[in-house]
Amino acid sequence: MRIGVIGTGNMGSLLVGALIRSRAVKPKFISVMNRTKEKALILKRKYHHLSVLTSPNEVLQHSDLVFICVKPDQFFPLLDSLRGAWHPSQVAISITSPISVRQLEQLIPCQVARVIPSIVNQSLAGSTLVTFGTEITDIQKSKLWALLSHFSHPIEIDEETIRAASDLASCGPAFLTFLLRKMIDGAVSTTPITQAQATQLTTEMISGLGKLLADGTYTLGELQKKVTVKGGITGIGIEVLEQENHDTFQKLFTETQKKFEEDRKQIDTAFNHGEH
């Protein structure tokens, strides 16, 4: 399968790296382009045999499956410029969560899907969130699923839950990193431990925790119970967290959902304007 990637920013580069490192696709079968060509050339220097092309039209000419990895404000102008360039047998994949699959199908005259990656896919782990278009064939579904399975655990997600799923799978690493940094800062500011020691211990702890969960050794609930001794120090710490953060994540999901709806309204306006 020939893969095209339009946009080689953070997510586009992540996908290219994951595809190659997982051996899902050889570099010679991948074509990329970016508005700022130097970003694409950085990937070329890393993966010598991939092709750097000069326009989105060229990418379509050389690809069976095309990942569209551009910002929402670039999305509609890009697709407008490509209206007559698609082939019905191609599969177009957006990684932009606020743009619905229904909108993709109205803008792109071929089979479509949406795939939301995560930064943890760089380690050939974590989930990718998949929403299929209504016209995509079972054969193409299977091909895409197999491709994503090389570097992730693909999970099919509907429009109603895409924001919450993205918050957990894609934004989650940033949220947890923020909390871990706060934990390190708390230890450094209140005890003699150094920043370097606290960072090393926390990093190694979270790495080991991930392995325990990945191996199925414990569930999240079981792990907390194993570490927490009644009347012990861990229990005291949990009590503080419960008091101080009892509704933190409810607020977080409320605010991210609100921002998501704002983004969708802007996209709907742009979409309706483009249709007229």
UniProtKB/TrEMBL annotation:
Question: Pfam families annotated for this entry?
Answer: F420_oxidored, P5CR_dimer
Its UniProt entry gives the catalysed reaction(s) as: L-proline + NADP(+) = (S)-1-pyrroline-5-carboxylate + NADPH + 2 H(+); L-proline + NAD(+) = (S)-1-pyrroline-5-carboxylate + NADH + 2 H(+)
* Entry annotated with the keyword Cytoplasm: yes
Q: Which InterPro entries does the entry mention? A: 6-PGluconate_DH-like_C_sf, NAD(P)-bd_dom_sf, P5C_Rdtase_cat_N, P5CR-like_CS, P5CR_dimer, Pyrroline-COOH_reductase
Pathway annotation: Amino-acid biosynthesis; L-proline biosynthesis; L-proline from L-glutamate 5-semialdehyde: step 1/1
Record-annotated Pyrroline-5-carboxylate reductase dimerisation domain positions: 159-262
| Primary location group | cytoplasm
Keyword terms: Amino-acid biosynthesis, Cytoplasm, NADP, Oxidoreductase, Proline biosynthesis
Which EC number applies? Answer: 1.5.1.2
User: Does the entry feature the keyword DNA repair, yes or no?
Assistant: no
Q: Where in the cell is it found?
A: Cytoplasm
> In terms of domain of life, where is this protein from?
Bacteria
Q: List, alphabetically, the SUPFAM superfamilies matched.
A: 6-phosphogluconate dehydrogenase C-terminal domain-like, NAD(P)-binding Rossmann-fold domains
Sequence ranges assigned to domain Pyrroline-5-carboxylate reductase catalytic N-terminal in this UniProt record: 2-97
Q: Which family does it belong to?
A: Belongs to the pyrroline-5-carboxylate reductase family.
Among HAMAP family, the record links this protein to: P5C_reductase
What is this protein's function per UniProt? Catalyzes the reduction of 1-pyrroline-5-carboxylate (PCA) to L-proline.
Its name, as the record gives it, is Pyrroline-5-carboxylate reductase
Q: Which organism is it from?
A: Sporolactobacillus mangiferae
Q: Which gene encodes it?
A: comER
